[in-house]
């Protein structure tokens, strides 16, 4: 998420930030009233990329507690466990669900981006 945010924040027009400073706005108000509204696409892109990466993440989730027996289970670990027990049908079903979620999110983001582009 860091790279999209960095690029988005670097592309904000500095004249708006200078104007806010001249008008006596605090850094906090400048952040919430200028930087965040002008970075909505950047925030959305970063969030989607982070979610997509996390969706398929395995090692970190397993280490931090994503698989407490009989309490929690995330999809990537469930797929791994089904493959280990040779239950390929269930593993394929989980994989298809994750694939569907991923494509749905990408299509939604693309639709929002196109809609915003043509509404300007």
Oligomer: single chain
How far apart, in Å, are the first and last alpha carbons? 26 Å
How many whole angstroms does the radius of gyration measure? 20 Å
User: Helix amount, in percent?
Assistant: over 70%
Number of strands: 0
Describe the structure.
This protein is mostly helical. The chain folds into two domains: 1-40, no CATH class; 56-120, no CATH class. The chain is 77% helix and 0% strand.
Question: Key features?
Answer:
single chain; 120 residues; mainly alpha; 2 domains; 77% helix; 0% strand; elongated
Question: Topology of this structure?
Answer:
Layout: H1 2-10, H2 14-22, H3 27-35, H4 40-56, H5 59-64, H6 75-84, H7 88-119
Task: Summarize it.
The chain has 120 residues and is mostly helical. The protein contains 7 helices and no strands. The protein has 2 domains: 1-40, no CATH class; 56-120, no CATH class.
């Amino acid at each position: 998420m860091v790279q999209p945010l960095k690029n988005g924040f670097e592309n904000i027009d500095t004249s708006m930030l200078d104007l806010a400073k001249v008008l006596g706005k605090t850094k906090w108000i400048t952040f919430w009233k200028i930087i965040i509204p002008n970075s909505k696409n950047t925030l959305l892109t970063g969030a989607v990329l982070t979610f997509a990466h996390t969706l398929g993440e395995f090692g970190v989730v397993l280490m931090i507690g994503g698989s407490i027996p009989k309490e929690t289970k995330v999809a990537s670990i469930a797929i791994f466990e089904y493959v280990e027990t040779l239950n390929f049908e269930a593993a394929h079903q989980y994989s298809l669900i994750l694939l569907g979620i991923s494509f749905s999110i990408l299509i939604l983001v693309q639709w929002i981006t196109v809609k915003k582009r043509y509404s300007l």
